Amino acid sequence: MLGSLPKRAKHNIILFTVSFVYIFVIGLFPDNQNLSFVYYTFISLIYFFSILTIKDKSNHYFYVPVIMIILTWVTEFLNFPLLSRITGIISTFFFFIIIILLVIRVARSKTVGVLEFLESVNVYLLLGIAGSILFGMIYSTNHDAYNPKGEILKNQADFIYYSFVTMTTLGYGDITPNDSLARSLSIFFSVAGQLYLTMIIAMLVGKYLSEQTEK
């Protein structure tokens, strides 16, 4: 079925599917050594398909996800704390670039259809993934940065959970920021999540109404 779709639609559907599994499905399984392998595999796929959603007809962008994937797996196998932080910063920067480019594309679109809505959802999911990487990086530097009521944050699922709870301003309170940097980033992602939803909904609805008026 995907074979008959335009490349842009196909890549966005695959990115959504891979991100969905990364965010909602992997964390359902028991925590063990293989779970980290699964997370790194899926984040590598997210790097790759993120580029495919925004690349032009040439292939010169492909070195970017290749570098990201190499850094991710080297960090996993060699377990260098400094390299892990550098990889986290680069990964976050990478996702913010993808997010900006996707938002610009949606903003410039003259029509509002399923594809534009799907790209908007992908932006929100990538924002949450970027947040989880940053929160995890802070925790790896300072295990006292968060206060999970006596528990240890074990795997990426905890940071994904905290990232989206923060973005939605749901605030269960089971994980709370405990130092200035963690609090500042939590404020940033809570504001960014709400602003994005407000602005993207207004933009899409405005475009849709304008399109209906022109008809």
Count of all domains: 1
Profile the largest sheet.
Answer: 2 strands, antiparallel
DSSP strand content:
under 5%
Specify the structural class: mainly alpha
Low-confidence stretches: none
End-to-end CA span: 31 Å
User: How do the SSEs run, as a string of H and E?
Assistant: HHHHHEHEH
* DSSP summary: helix tally: 7
Overall pLDDT metric: 86
Q: How many extended strands?
A: 2
| Helix content class | over 70%
* Apparent shape: globular
Strand arrangement across the biggest beta sheet: 1-2
Radius of gyration: 18 Å
What features would you describe in this structure?
- The protein is 74% helix and 2% strand.
- By secondary structure, it is mostly helical.
- It has one domain.
- The mean pLDDT is 86.
Give the topology, please.
Layout: H1 7-25, H2 33-54, H3 63-78, H4 81-108, H5 114-141, E1 146-147, H6 156-167, E2 176-177, H7 180-214
Helix pairs in contact: 1-2, 1-5, 2-3, 2-4, 3-4, 4-5, 5-6, 5-7
Describe the structure using short key phrases.
7 helices; two-stranded antiparallel sheet; single chain; globular
Could you write a compact summary of the structure shown?
With 215 residues, the protein is mainly alpha-helical. 74% of the residues lie in helices and 2% in strands. It has helices at 7-25, 33-54, 63-78, 81-108, 114-141, 156-167, 180-214, and strands at residues 146-147, 176-177.
